[in-house]
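INFO worker-7 received task bundle
INFO bundle size: 2
INFO processing item 0
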Amino acid sequence: MDQSTIEKLKDIVGPNYVADKDYDLIAYSRAWSYEGPLQPDVIVVPGSTEAVSQVMKLANEVGTPVTVRAGGTTTTGMALPRHGGIVLDLNRMNTIYGIDEDAQAITMQAGTTVYGLIKYIEQRGWKIPWLPEFGGGVTIGGWTAFNGVGAGGSIYGRVGDFIIGLQVVLPTGEIVRTGSASFKGARQFTRYLGTGPDLTGLYLNSLGVSGVMTEVTMRVYPIPEALDCISFGFDTSEDAQEGMKKLIRANIAYGITCVDDEMFKTIGLPPPAPWVVQFFAEGWKEEVEFRIGKARQIIAEAGFGNELPSNTIKMLWGGARGTSLRSKPPKRYFCVGCFHSMDTTAEVFNVYNRVGEKYGMNRGMLWWTCQTYANAFPVYVYDELNDGPEAAAQATKEVREGWTAAGAVPDYPGPNPDCTPNIVPEYLAFWGRIKNALDPNCVMHRGQSPVVE
């Protein structure tokens, strides 16, 4: 990148918020995926939506790609610049604007961490629907861009199900709002309104390819009187599948999660059962007691599965607050994810185990429901120094192929591996027309999957 462009970036955000030294670029060449290093030409840390807009206009002017980054907790490779250019770090944009209690809504800048948000609203008697999948270091912008999920998805679904509206900088630099605030005189209180298609949806599962989210407004809920859980052990993946199907169909869960004995072994704990299913309930105390009792009754009447001590599940629930997987000895891990229908749960589990056994990898299944379907995102531990990223890439490819054969779909876009060949051509062409209209110079996340450039 020529020096004149770097000087213009310094004029936009200030000289202290532009970095192009080798040690800075190296630090941004990795994220939480096995891939890398992929190094940018310059790092820009804006402090406002207006600054982001100016950066995007300059990027179009000089033709340099832009990759948005915040917490860096993605395992898909989407935070890494595939063609150099600008990495736009949103961590400086972390202002929480406050709660609109009448609308049960909170607006914040996209670089706000989930941990910061949770602490802010808990002190005021409010909560977001659930804990995120990769801990408190996840940013709101990243979480929304992934249309993420978390423990609690049985009732609340995914992030997109409680997003009200966004402020977005388009790839060409224009600033727009989605949701009810796009109508003159209205504040953010609903995502849907009778003015045309739902444009918020363009930014869910987008991971930056549609533009830069700078503000997010989402629903908040009063902290319930009670939250409790019960856990069950199952001997086979097939039994676990059937038990979870019965719990889901009862429509009484706040969240249903599942881990396996391999996870306990990986983190150095004795496994209480081959498959451990956790059922969570929230609400009034009497309501929670009823739901827990009903779950116990459902599994007892099924004739398989046994109740486990409650301390097992409390330990696992606390793990949802962390990003790292503890292993002995410490090693890196990679994650593969899919969404699947409940009737394919056992096959999704079996594919994960077959690949892990083939490559001799310590591993652990992480799984939870999203209303009536499920998200599996197992982790595999590998020796990065001795095996290199090739082993992780090959295992990921084989897991993804097995899941595709079972009818599952990728949970999030990304190049690890590129799923573009499995996308129906008509859908891909449709998305390509939208992408090219939004980003005619292809500056946003250039080269990222699905490839429509």
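INFO item 0 finished
INFO processing item 1
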Amino acid sequence: MLKDEFERIWEQLTQKRPHVNNRLEQVRIQNIRGIVDISIRFPYPVSVLAGPNACGKTTVLHALGCLYINKLGRSFTPAKLFPDFKTKNPDIPHDSGGNNQISYLYYSNKVPSEMLWKRNADKWNKSYFGRKGVNQPERIVYLRNLSQLSSPAEIISLQKMGQEQINCDEIPPQLITLAHQILPHHYARLYLLSHKAKDLLFAERDDADHPSYSEFHMSAGERAILRLSRDISTLHDALILIDEIEAGLHPYTQQVLMLELQRLALRQDLQIIVTSHSPFILESVPSEGRIFLERSDNGVTVTPPYRDFVQRALYHQYLDLLSVVCEDDISEELVRGVVEILSPKLDLRQSIIQVGRDTGKDEFNHYIRALAKFNRLDQFIFVLDGDSRDYKDQLEKTAKTERCSLMILVLPGEYSPERYIITTLNQYSSEYAEHFGCSSHDFRKIVSDFIQLYEKSTGKERDIAKEILHSISLEIKTDEGRIARTVGRVETSRIGSDMEIFSRGLEEFILLWRS
């Protein structure tokens, strides 16, 4: 159910984006908090900044808040959000400024513009890249860290004051509409008890078991959602920046929150950017809204939000593995050779791709039905031998019956993988001789002699090809698996070869799975 809702809102937001008046398009940050130089685009109205601890998510979020003059409350500037510690005593450690810069590309009233914050010595200055008569854009900016809301312990003084200095204001119902969409409770009324800069929520519920209670008795998730709902429910054309949005929330509630935020963004022309460590939050926006940061020896970089990158960074292990199912041992080794070439190209650890074989293509139909039943079909790639290509349509029909898409490939040729290997060895014998420690002349003779020896044999083509390959392996003192794996590697690297074309199909499926 949620999947359909997400896909619907993704399409609606994508279609509306070019027509909004104001949007932040790109930011570039240089020499701030360990970020040497990074550029980040925001092609979708609701973006998630994800990554491990200390990768710069909050730094990016704070930098974004400095673009606009805030129409609602105090404005944020680099001097306030990235302050230095200074001292008159030279013997005490202190911060020393560098060439700090934050530049923006944004649309104001649908007109593209640029702005730069740059620190010279101890002072931050704005510029507009030489354009005259340009002012800093204005917009409502909301910047909040949900994990650092004022805790009841910090506002315990409200209790001690009794009623003499406490203001009590009822929060209008429209300000808690968002909370009603997310939380399982229904609130009859919500009050804000306040004194000076401190405040306390007080709820009245329709539930007889919990008629009324203060923020002291709310869960962390309930408090976060109520305060967020109160703050942003009626904002229009605003930039919403939320740090650690998943704080205190169940995974399902995280997804519901992200769905409702995107609906709010659609209705009220909001641009929302959040940070998170949660894969549930990350998967709640389309791929163009996922921004994954990673810190390396070269600084902070933006990396593709592939599932293996995300899981490695967030969990230090791979939770999902991609399985490639082949018909037999020879096709398995051919595919292993292909994967050995693709892995470094895609920055992919081979351990997350499990290449295996089954008892044959006849079992593939059963697997497709079973995997579809448990929503696991998207983690499997099926590979048919060349002489089984006519079976491909039947398998795709089975998947369609289960209302699933199928990742399926066919090995090169219209014959068995053994025949493909033998033909390839014969065609490029001089090249393969080096791989198996033979002279070019000897290897060519070995391959051609066995082909001629079995040329007039009767029996199934596949069985004859198996015998030829087995005989070649005995003669050059290796096993058929190594020969198959070598052919897979070499032919994948040969531009324009049938195996190189097959590898492109496998690469596309790997990228689809990662995304």
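INFO item 1 finished
INFO post-check item 1: The chain is about 40% helix and 25% strand.
INFO post-check item 1: The CA atoms of residues 204 and 212 lie 4 Å apart.
INFO worker-7 idle
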